[in-house]
Design goal:
Blueprint: E1 7-8, H1 10-13, E2 21-25, H2 29-41, E3 45-49, H3 52-62, E4 66-70, H4 78-88, E5 93-97, H5 102-110, E6 115-118, H6 123-138, E7 148-151, E8 154-157, E9 162-167, E10 170-174, H7 178-188, E11 195-196, H8 197-204, H9 212-228, E12 236-238, E13 242-244
Helix pairs in contact: 2-6, 3-4, 6-8, 7-9, 8-9
């Protein structure tokens, strides 16, 4: 039998990040082409700006869901653009830069950037970070959305962070840490999808400096807690790739 699809409250099913609009602000066309290709493969829409003034104009007219912003731009540098974007509102911004000093990273975060990627970068990682930021900022924003997610015997309450495993005549509550809850919730939204360690780290530990193996530790602890209430081998490991909540079989 196939793994159970999530029978979700509308909030969990409605994910604006699936077709979000990303404004790429980068003056090197080759880099823009690569990033755009990876984002569009993820189902995202893209716009392009080659300098600071054009970025601000497109942000005002197109109202993108996220801005990928290079620091070294003609016309108006990325710091100045970020400052003006923050004066306008809270559009998520991920900085792209060749500057890898800690001070530059701290400057970006203090000015209101949501993430920071140093060149040269892996475009797949950039796409994963974009999706992670979009999920955090866009998911579940409808006011009428109910906060309960159900996947098989799992019942995940998004408002109280309570998790229960239910069956005929029984209900067991799982006592999870915040990180374990985030990992479970992330995978439960697409229970048969394989999530890479990098994606889970950026989704569930966005402010952490932890290594990817830290994800393994959190998943292992989550798996033991699920096993204690009769859900063995959940989440499932996919060798060399990452994890998924349930196998599609």
């Amino acid at each position: 039998m196939p793994a159970p699809a999530p029978t979700l409250a509308p909030a969990a099913q409605w994910d604006r990040s699936l077709d979000a609009l990303v404004l790429i602000v980068e003056d090197e066309a080759e880099i823009t082409d690569i990033i755009a290709a990876y984002l569009e493969r993820e189902g995202l829409r893209t716009l392009r700006a080659i300098d600071g003034p054009a970025a601000l104009d497109l942000h005002r007219s197109a109202r993108p869901d996220l801005v990928l912003l290079d620091v070294q731009l003609p016309g108006l540098d990325g710091w100045s653009v970020l400052s003006q974007l923050r004066q306008r509102g809270d559009t998520p911004v991920i900085m792209l830069t060749a500057l890898d000093q800690d001070l530059d990273k701290l400057t970006a975060l203090r000015m209101g950037a949501d993430d920071y990627v140093v060149k040269p970068f892996n475009p797949a990682e950039v796409a994963a970070r974009v999706r992670a930021v979009l999920r955090r900022t866009l998911r579940g924003t409808r006011p009428d959305a109910a906060p309960v997610l159900r996947v098989g015997p799992l019942v995940i309450d998004l408002a109280t962070h309570a998790v229960h495993v239910e069956g005929d005549g029984y209900s067991h509550e799982l006592l999870l840490t915040l990180t374990e809850f985030k990992l479970l919730h992330c995978m439960a939204l697409a229970p048969t999808r394989i999530f890479s360690r990098s994606e889970l780290m950026h989704e569930c530990l966005p402010e952490s400096e932890a290594l990817e193996r830290t994800v393994d530790s959190h998943v292992s602890k989550l798996r033991r807690k699920l096993d204690d209430v009769g859900m063995g081998h959940v989440p499932a490991s996919v060798r060399g790739v990452g994890y998924r909540l349930m196998a599609d079989r």
